[in-house]
Amino acid sequence: MPILQAVVNIAELLHQKGITDVVVCPGSRSAPLTLAVARHPRLRVRVMADERSAGFVALGMAQQRRQPVAIICTSGSAVYNLAPAVAEAYFQQVPLLLLTADRPHEWLYQQDGQTIDQVGIFGNQVKRGYDLPADYTHADARWFIERTLNEAINLSRLSPAGPVHVNVPLREPFYPTADEAFTYERVRVIDVLAAPPTLPTETWHQLLAVWDRTERVLIAVGQLPCDPAMLAILKKFSDELGVPVVGEITGNIPMNDSFITKGDTFLSGLTDSAGQGFRPDLLITIGNSFLTRNLKTFFRQYPAQQHWHIQPTADRINDSFQSLTTLIPAEPLPFLEKLFADVDYQRFLQGDDEDETNGFLSHWQAADRLAAKLVQQTVSDPGDLLTDWSAVQLVLDQLPEGSVLHLANSMPVRYANLCGIHERQHISVWGNRGVSGIDGCLSTALGAALITDQLVTVLIGDVAFFYDRNALWSAPVPPNLRIILLNNDSGHIFRIIDGPSRQPELEAYFETPHGYTAKRTAEDAGIRYQSGNTIESLRSLLPDFFQPGPTAALLELTTDKLANQQLFTRYKENVKTQISPKL
């Protein structure tokens, strides 16, 4: 029997519990775990040398799979390097299983190498942490390990999904001898049956009564994965019930004739009377975080009398707009489907099921059209001058239908939200908006490309790209990955934000110019490299750039940070002079 059979069986349990993908970071202490998954015939294993990048690659894979992805790393500081991705997964509610090798605990604080206190190392950024025994031979220890792994995997999936940590102390020897063959024994699988919360009939009647006496209802959608069924029911609320549906690109709310997607533009700088005109009586929110400051500020400044937030569990109160009156523990999609059906039926019984003009909806939609027109005019102003914003608009317009878009944090995600994506494009949008860091944006997109056959495009700024270029270190880079790099040689967002932009230390201490290009990075990674610095060059490059090919591709667009700033400043002035007075 191989040494550490209980560890070998962990790989079989991963398979039996439906985990298909494992990201491994090289290390000696973790060798028993690594060999167990590497030799398992049914597990797909990806090797990433940089633990920080590896965590985000696993995150991108788990986003697409909607299932846990396991990560294996060695002991010591390697474990800490997983922390940024763990935090993002926790707040984005993405399931990860962290298997960290460790020295037996008696060696802690004994000046032994690669030894830190790993129990509870991720604190409150994981759903739970487990610590396995260092001795695996006793029957009770093997029973405990099997039970713990079952519980950990189940917990990572249970709503709200998230990362779970299993610390694995390991004694030497780590490696089997030449005459020892791995045998994957039968393992016991313990499943947890789904028991979604159901609202009592009396509660439904109370909610319907609130709806019935409310004139101005609005639905706001936070960050959510792309779901055609969700879009369909939201469109029914708008088109048939006259309810404004307000969303952002990170919530996968596309541009169409129904939804409100330009709130960040027209909700800024409102007079009090204009703000009162957009104020809902009942606000219904679904999804995770909202992206734009103006949208969040509006709902805080003009709170609804009633605010329902729908989330699967009631373990935490999400009161981002500081106006919550009712937390509804339900899955958003079935809740909205039932709510629409009941309201629609009630209207039928009351004889008012005919389509009626809704002034509240029309008011929001008119403002949205006005803002969309202004955005289009603004981004067209520079002519042939390439800016970050005009580049994003061109890229979004030409994205292949049915592809995947990853938006890096800082300005790319904000420019993309201002531009928007049309419904007919059927684009699935992702972004690390759990904690909104720049540290793993490229790695997350690469992880997505490893899982899907669709084209995956990542829009990323230069600081985020160079910070995370170790994502391209562990070959091969998937050929369906497309990287659009906006290189303005600075942390451009600090020139846009009012505070740092007014400081004399702006360039040296905030923007931090670097002078790098991505050409050599692309060459090192073996991916196709192109560059451009005009609107015309971008137009000519994009059609070929998005074509399938044998390697990934990187398109570096060089822009001037001062021109970017001037365009954004002009946009804000135009909002004040052309939008606000008309609302």
From TrEMBL:
Catalytic activity: isochorismate + 2-oxoglutarate + H(+) = 5-enolpyruvoyl-6-hydroxy-2-succinyl-cyclohex-3-ene-1-carboxylate + CO2
One Pfam assignment: TPP_enzyme_N
Pathway where it operates: Quinol/quinone metabolism; 1,4-dihydroxy-2-naphthoate biosynthesis; 1,4-dihydroxy-2-naphthoate from chorismate: step 2/7; Quinol/quinone metabolism; menaquinone biosynthesis
Entry note: cofactor: Binds 1 thiamine pyrophosphate per subunit.
EC number: 2.2.1.9
Database matches in PANTHER family: 2-SUCCINYL-5-ENOLPYRUVYL-6-HYDROXY-3-CYCLOHEXENE-1-CARBOXYLATE SYNTHASE, PROTEIN PHYLLO, CHLOROPLASTIC
HAMAP family: MenD
Membership in a protein family: Belongs to the TPP enzyme family. MenD subfamily.
Subunit structure, interactors included: Homodimer.
Protein name: 2-succinyl-5-enolpyruvyl-6-hydroxy-3-cyclohexene-1-carboxylate synthase
Organism of this sequence: Spirosoma utsteinense
